[in-house]
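Students often ask what a holo structure prediction actually looks like on paper. The answer is less mysterious than it sounds. You provide the chain, you provide the ligand, and the output is a string of discrete structure tokens encoding the 3D arrangement of the protein together with coenzyme A.
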Amino acid sequence: MNKTVNIDIQNKDILEKGQFENQKLDFQIVALTSDDIQTMLIFQALILDALEPGEEGYFLEKDESFFKKHFNSGSKAIGVVTNGHLIGQALIVHPNAQNPKTGMTDMDLPEPVESISVIQGVGAHPESRGLKVGDKLIKAWLDVAANDNRHNALAETDQHNHYSWQLFVKNGVDIVSEGLDQSDGTKLYNHHKVLKL
Ligand SMILES: CC(C)(COP(=O)(O)OP(=O)(O)OC[C@H]1O[C@@H](n2cnc3c(N)ncnc32)[C@H](O)[C@@H]1OP(=O)(O)O)[C@@H](O)C(=O)NCCC(=O)NCCS
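The corresponding structure tokens follow.
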């Protein structure tokens, strides 16, 4: 890979270990924490750099204070790591009464808010195509949500981003409605999977 983002996983909570299909390459899925904010910002920049013109709505940039608030309110993040390099990351929002924001833009939400888990900021290293990094992130999110007793797994995707919304649908996180991001006119799909706990 030309651009790599290093991460030390020695003291990290490893959620899953495995080997990429058809490759003799180990991967780990780790819980990312507030200690990883700088690393996550670097990784985010790499994802944003790789977007083509017109794809800006696929991945919304988040600043350092957003990441800090995210972790301070008890929400989570996961990363896919291989050979000490971060090759995928996602934020997992677990709202509660004190921090009820879900990050969903335009969806009628199931209740209570403590039943909801939202994945956002899903990104796979642009040179990792074919390794199913996006798929691994979504599967790991559904496990994290179920472990935290969150049975309503929600996500939103840009309708033009077919790689992204197909990935959710393939994992049973179905399109249940359409939405609109009024700030930039992006047409959204709202996804929902009810998890058996
Ligand atoms: C959407 C995204 C996370 C998918 O990650 P991924 O690791 O490629 O996903 P997977 O390999 O698990 O599955 C997606 C499929 O679409 C293909 N694909 C994804 N992005 C692609 C691209 N830009 N060009 C060609 N094929 C692509 C993958 O090769 C894979 O195909 P396969 O099932 O035939 O193997 C990744 O493309 C990405 O980071 N995009 C930029 C940010 C973004 O759009 N995020 C979505 C936020 S909801």
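The CA atoms of residues 46 and 125 lie 8 Å apart.
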